[in-house]
Amino acid sequence: MRRLLLCQALCFFLLKASAHTVELNNMFGQIQSPGYPDSYPSDSEVTWNITVPEGFRIKLYFMHFNLESSYLCEYDYVKVETEDQVLATFCGRETTDTEQTPGQEVVLSPGSYMSITFRSDFSNEERFTGFDAHYTAVDVDECKEREDEELSCDHYCHNYIGGYYCSCRFGYILHTDNRTCRVECSDNLFTQRTGIITSPDFPNPYPKSSECFYVIELEEGFMINLQFEDIFDIEDHPEVPCPYDYIKIKAGPDVLGPFCGEKAPEPISTQSHSIQILFRSDNSGENRGWRLSYRATGNECPELQPPVHGKIEPLQAKYSFKDQVLVSCDTGYRVLKDNVEMDTFQIECLKDGTWNNKIPTCKIVDCGVPAELEHGVVTFSTRNNLTVYKSEMRYSCQQPYYKMLPNISGIYTCSAKGSWMNKEMGRSLPTCLPVCGLPKFSRRSLARIFNGHPAQEGTSPWIAMLTDPNGQPFCGGSLLGSDWIVTAAHCLHQLLDSDDSTLHSSDMLRPSDFKIILGKHSRVRSDKNEQHLRVKRITLHPQYNPSTFENDVALVELLESPVLNNYVMPICLPEEPQQEGAMVIVSGWGKQFLQRLPETLMEIEIPIVDHNTCQEAYASLKKKVSKDMICAGEKEGGKDACSGDSGGPMVTLDTERGHWYLVGTVSWGEDCGKKERYGVYSYIYHNKDWIQRVTRVRN
Ligand code: ARG
After folding, report:
1. Nearest-angstrom CA–CA distance, 472 and 466
2. Which residues, 6 or more positions from 12, have their beta carbon under 8 angstroms from its beta carbon?
3. Rounded Cα distance, 222 and 104, in Å
């Protein structure tokens, strides 16, 4: 309308008056009324069209202004306008109620174009000098002065002379409209069974010009439920459904939405395990977005009953697809599945609502039959010889011939781990050691016996007879532990050349050359308790000297162990050095002094003789009594060992400990039973370390 009126007026003047138009394109300039500074002519009209580059506006100000005044500036005037708007109309010399002069006022164009028209009417009653005005192009600060919301920057605005540009906050991308800030949000994959998805920046307004894509992808068998929570605010339109921003949900073949507005959609139960969500925003609006929580459900599996003596974890009222249950058993029980024992067993709810396996059973731990203990017996404390968890059994050694080492209760309990456990020893077993030096039978007084006398059966159960293959006894020995005989080294070889002090292996007895008989009493007749044993190995003392009889001791390992009983029992090793004067018993099947061999085992009781006394006794015979020898016998002689007794035991009773121990083995002497000629024995205490090293026997 206005444009049309303006045109009518202009057209009128253009037709009527001498009008002309000046085009101005400079960044600044001067405009003056015609004839300035003289008075302007009547009936004239001049228009200046000022155009400056885009991004600039035009500032116009007057240095001089003197025009005819008329009501509403009907006659003469200066009019400032844009294409479609009159910015000001000036006339007169000073501003009144109805008319306006520019004075100090500056006229600013809204855009880069301004048109100024000067017009005078046909008559002038006085002289008017007109006007002198200047214009300059000024920069538009688009960042501050954009009244058009649609064109302003979304996040940041940067002004420069003649223009401006936009930029975005961190995490945003400038849209191709160079104005709005969008986000990259097309790559969102959710694979958890529950989750929360929100619009970008929620609950702050979501970005403009964005297309967000979210995928929930679960295993087949799940059904995803969706629920909008909290704020829901998506730009909408009163009439058109969601024309600007919206959220659309694709669940399997179904498409839900578009949704927008301020009212959240109702909870959605989809039947799908795969959901795609599209959220789109246009380039305007400040809405806060949405928050969506999802939860996957699956088919329910039937209730579970924990096994007897077991439990299931986690224990829930309901289990559904993918839920896993761990079955374990109480202490002392093991999971049994398909005849295989294990610690735990896991079962899982399948998508069809069944469990992938049956609940296994719990089987009580069984320690099994306890390991055999050599020379030991097992007794169960529980009825039926139960070997299951918590059952108790006891190891004991065959009494009275064996004793337990270490000295423990021997009670073992079946542990939850399936092994027999002892309080002190854990899983280790004790050992049953032969009892030494404790004969069942004790001898009647020996005091009244003179030249030795027959031994009572069973009073020296450790004595061993060494016989040749024909059964002829040639030496004695003593049982050590259950596998060793200690005897004299000189019993186990023949010294062919007595001048030669070196031992030749050809002179040595081989294991098959002799036999050991235990439980023996008679010399030649057989005894009901005798046990014949074969030899496995012979070990002579490494420092044995055949010419001096130094270290005249040897160890014979048996091929088989004897049965220990009242007639067969080992002798103990000495704990301490031997006291002189102590009474010892020497036994053997050796020669009587009348050169006769005895019917049965003979024994004598004699005192240990001081070492120096013994040395002196043999000094005249140039025989050395060394540290490894010990002498026994009475000064007046009479009682002595003799030929055939070699290797046999010289024992004494340890009154403190109550057992008999081996003091020495018969070794040598000058003749038998002669006055001041003592019997010389290999001193066991002296070589105890070597004996124990070889035999591993301990008391
Ligand atoms: N060497 C003798 C033997 O082979 C034993 C000698 C013991 N003599 C003695 N008088 N104590 O049997």
Report:
1. 8
2. none
3. 78
Which of 297, 355, 296, 364 is CA-nearest to residue 324?
A: 355
The residue whose two tokens read 């009527």 is 16
- CA 483 centroid distance within chain: 51
Identified catalytic residue from 646, 659, 667, 682: 646
Residue with tokens 């001898």: 443
C-beta atoms surrounding 630 within 10 Å: 28
Radius of gyration of the CA atoms of the chain, in A: 64
SS3 content of the chain, % helix, strand, coil (to 5): 10, 40, 50
The single residue listed with the structure tokens 């209760």 is 409
CA-proximal residue: ligand 1, atom 6 (nearest) = 668
- Give the DSSP H or E segment for 613: helix 611-619
Identify the burial level of 84 via C-beta atoms within 10 angstroms of its C-beta, where 0-12 means exposed, 13-18 middle and 19 or more buried.
Answer: exposed
In 3D space, the residue among 238, 234, 262 whose CA is nearest the CA of residue 248 turns out to be 234
Token digits of residue 268: 């959605």
Write out the DSSP string of 297-365.
E-PEEPP--PPTTEEEES--S-EETT-EEEEEE-TTEEEEETTEEESEEEEEB-TTS-BSSPPPEEEE-
For residue 236, indicate whether it is catalytic: no
Ligand 1 mean position, distance from CA 605 (Å): 16
What atom of ligand 1 comes closest to residue 643's alpha carbon? 12
SS3 512: helix
Cα torsion through 446, 449, 454, 455, rounded to 10: 10
Per run of 10 residues, the mean pLDDT along the chain (length 699 residues) is 41 56 95 91 93 93 92 92 93 82 90 94 82 94 76 89 90 91 91 94 91 94 92 93 94 91 94 94 91 93 94 91 94 95 94 93 95 94 85 94 92 95 94 95 61 87 95 95 96 65 76 95 95 96 94 97 96 96 95 85 94 94 95 92 94 95 96 92 97 93
CA atoms of 166 and 148, how far apart (whole Å): 15
Q: What does the CA dihedral 4, 9, 15, 18 come to, rounded to 10 degrees?
A: -130
The reply to whether omega before 473 is within 30° of 0 (cis) is no
Q: What is the rounded distance in angstroms from the CA atom of residue 285 to the CA atom of residue 242?
A: 13
Which atom of ligand 1 is nearest to 633's Cα?
11
- Asked if 284 is an active-site residue, the reply is no
Q: Are 241 and 214 in contact (CB under 8 A)?
A: no
Which of these, 363, 314, 318, lies nearest to 342 by C-alpha position? 363
Indicate the burial class of 438 (C-beta count within 10 angstroms; 0-12, 13-18, 19 or more): middle
326 vs 342: CA distance, rounded Å: 12
Q: How far is the CA of 475 from the centre of ligand 1 (A)?
A: 10
Tell me the backbone φ, ψ of residue 291, rounded to 5 degrees.
-140, 125
Q: Got the DSSP string for 629-660? A: EEEE--TT------TT-TT-EEEEEETTTTEE
Q: Kindly give the number of the ligand 1 atom that is closest to the alpha carbon of 640.
A: 11
CA distance 490 to 476: 11
In whole angstroms, give the CA distance from residue 543 to residue 553.
Answer: 9
**Catalytic (active site) residue 552:** yes
Residues whose CB falls within 8 Å of the CB of residue 339, separated by 6 or more in sequence, listed in order: none
DSSP 165: E
Instruction: Please state, in angstroms and rounded to a whole number, the distance separating the CA atoms of residues 19 and 21.
Output: 7
